[in-house]
Write a structure and sequence with these properties.
heterodimer; A: 148 residues; mainly alpha; 2 domains; 5 helices; B: 499 residues; two-stranded antiparallel ribbon; 22 helices; 2 strands; 74% helix; globular
């Protein structure tokens, strides 16, 4: 057997894995019966449907021709995810101003075109704008500085 | 003339100073962000959501709607001038619009897009005003089985009309439904799939989900591509189309509007399908000489009218049934829920000021867009010169702040980061995010309706086919599935979506 449509094949497997996870989890919540559906029943039904669909998609990949999985460029995605997560960490402990600096300074690494001087300007601009608009103008309750 | 009275009442709501101001700010911000390449309307609405939290439901909805059609409009500016569709529904606008720009007619192209959108917006507003109330009256009589089947039909129709593999799209709907079930089950109080994290008790944040799939992942995809597009640098002449242009376009605008209004109501329709269909029709039936693809002004007028009409009529299923027809409408539902309003047929009777205020504000907003865009076009053009390397960190910042402010939970930012990873992998595997978002919003509602239906009917599952209306919806869904399975139609759909 030869996988002809790798994108479909892997999507199918992912679908099955997600469905299996939810169905196994559902067993702890009680299925009930059709008259009084327990909290586990609906996820089990949807999960079962997803398993079937995932299997069809994965098996179809042996028959239908499809394009290869495109290259994963690790740099942009990893840096973006890390930058956002660190925004959260920083916001919690050091407040918004530090968090904006962190997400911008790390985030710009996702692109090779970023220039140092511009980045500094960008941090200042985005900080001033966000604080002025979100905190002062809109009055959203975002901590600006670290809690003393 | 009940409708007329209602519209007048709506105008009263929409024309209060406060609501005019929010409508204006919405249109302005929407256009501003929509013009920036690489940010579609979903990401725009999601990013600008925090602006509405402190408003009441009516001004919030009015502002969000303004953002939505402002973003639509801004997207066409980018399409014409840079040849990058700011959003997917502007793809067809690039075909003739950018050709016009290259021939030195960027001004009239932008002008006719604005005028076409305005005319379409006015007509579509009337369609919403006349169509939505009777639909809501029917919908309010729906019992749980009808509702459940309606949602099944809506989801199926949405994936059939969208692009890509239908099976994968339905699978994505299921993934969305499952993700939507995370959190406390309202019926039994059991906390599902929360991994003992108290933050997950209320479920996965919808805004975080939408931003991961439509905001951050788009940024990452843009960073992977290096081509910068073809920026229009020449001075823009008059944006006013000639009388001749308007005469040429009149029927194209009308055709685009009617097609758009119709397709917008369908689930999965909305602006995208409308603009594609309008362009195809125009190519076939416009009066010769036709030179579509080489800068025919009708190739801009028709799809632009259609996508604006479609954008507006797609509010009908959202407002009357509480069912989103596209991801933007799903976001609107999310925004309404944040405001404590459960969208559905009861909104129209319980909160008439919300419904009619919104309808009237659509008209006001369209007028504003026209006034805003024709003179300000020069400003928007200059925005296009902002390089992406400066833009994308700003998107990160606004997405993060937006996600945090929904609930003031840092946890939601971690959810955003994690889901971005998931979204990236799914995107690489060619799985469309839109069905997932729709499933996420509809999942809990479907479970609820199914439960109620089973409860009343003692677990008899045949109730879904015994109730005539419910059976009708299911039959329609089945027919759609069969149609798409037929090879001949399938080929046609591929062609239509590819062009």
């Amino acid at each position: 057997m030869h996988i002809r449509s790798p994108r479909d094949f892997w999507s199918g497997l992912i679908f099955i894995a997600i469905a299996a996870g939810f169905m196994i989890g559902a067993r702890r919540y009680g299925l009930g019966d059709m008259h009084q559906m327990g909290p586990g029943l609906f996820p089990t039904l949807v999960g079962a449907l997803l398993v079937v669909l995932g299997a069809v998609v994965a098996l179809r990949a042996f028959v239908i021709e499809g394009p290869p999985v495109p290259r994963f460029y690790l740099r942009p995605i990893l840096i973006s995810v890390v930058a956002i997560a660190l925004f959260g960490v920083t916001l919690q402990h050091l407040g918004l101003i530090a968090a904006i600096a962190v997400v911008v300074l790390i985030g710009v690494l996702a692109s090779r075109e970023s220039r140092p001087l511009e980045v500094v300007g960008l941090v200042v601009l985005l900080t001033v704008f966000s604080v002025a608009v979100f905190v002062w103008m809109l009055g959203l309750p975002i901590p600006l500085w670290p809690d003393a | 003339m009940q409708t007329l009275d209602n519209l007048l009442f709506g105008l009263e709501v929409a024309l209060t100073l406060q609501n005019i101001a929010y409508c204006f700010i919405g249109c302005l911000l929407g256009t501003l962000v929509g013009v920036l390449p690489g940010i579609g309307p979903v990401a725009t609405v999601a990013m600008l959501l925090p602006f509405t939290f402190n408003l009441g439901p009516a001004p919030a909805l009015i502002m969000l709607a303004g953002i939505y059609y402002g973003a639509q409009y801004g997207g066409s500016t980018t399409a014409i001038l840079v040849n990058i569709p700011g959003e997917s529904s502007a793809v067809v606008t690039t075909l003739d619009g950018h050709q016009m720009a290259r021939k030195g007619r960027a001004g009239p192209a932008l002008g006719i897009a604005a005028i076409g959108s305005f005319v379409a917006g006015c007509i579509a507003t009337l369609v919403v005003a006349f169509f939505a109330p009777p639909l809501a009256e029917v919908a309010i009589k729906f019992g749980p089985p009808e509702y459940f089947s309606l949602m099944v039909f809506g989801l199926i129709a949405a994936v059939v009309l969208a692009r890509g593999s239908v099976i994968k799209a339905i699978a994505m709907v299921c993934v969305g439904i499952l993700l939507g079930l995370v959190g406390t089950d309202v019926n039994s109080g059991v906390i599902r799939y929360a991994f003992n994290l108290p933050e997950l008790m209320d479920g996965i944040g919808f805004v975080a989900l939408a931003m991961a799939f439509f905001g951050i992942t788009d940024v990452v995809a843009n960073l992977e591509e290096t081509d910068q597009g073809d920026v229009y640098k020449e001075r823009l002449g008059s944006v006013l189309p000639t009388l001749q242009d308007i005469r040429t376009c009149f029927w194209s605008i009308m055709r685009g509007t009617s097609l758009g209004s119709l397709l917008g109501i369908l689930p999965g329709g909305g602006a995208l399908l409308a603009s594609f269909a309008a362009y195809m029709v125009e190519k076939k039936i416009a009066k010769p000489p036709r030179n579509f693809g080489e800068g025919d002004i009708r190739g801009v007028a028709a799809p632009e009218s259609a996508n604006n009409a479609g954008a507006q009529t797609s509010f009908i299923p959202m407002l009357t049934l509480g069912i989103p027809s596209n991801p933007t409408m799903a976001l609107m539902i999310g925004a309404l829920m944040i405001q404590g309003i459960q969208p559905g047929p009861q909104v129209m009777t319980e909160r008439p000021e919300l419904f009619w205020g919104l309808v009237a504000s659509m008209w006001v907003g369209n007028l504003m867009l026209l006034v805003l865009n024709l003179p300000l076009i020069g400003v928007w053009v200059r925005l296009l010169a902002v390089p992406y390397r400066l833009l994308f960190p700003a998107i990160f910042v606004f997405c993060c702040i937006g996600v945090y402010t929904v609930d003031n939970k840092v946890f939601d930012i971690y959810v955003l980061a994690a889901l971005t990873g998931v979204a990236y992998v799914l995107l690489k595997l060619d799985c469309e995010p839109a069905p997932l978002i729709l499933g996420f919003i509809l999942g809990p509602m479907m479970e609820e309706q199914m439960r109620r239906a089973m409860m009343i009917n003692f677990g008899d599952i045949t109730v879904f086919v015994r109730h005539p209306v419910s059976a009708l919806f299911l039959a329609a869904a089945a027919i759609l599935m069969l149609l798409i399975a037929l090879p001949s139609l399938r080929a046609k759909r591929e062609v239509a979506l590819q062009e």
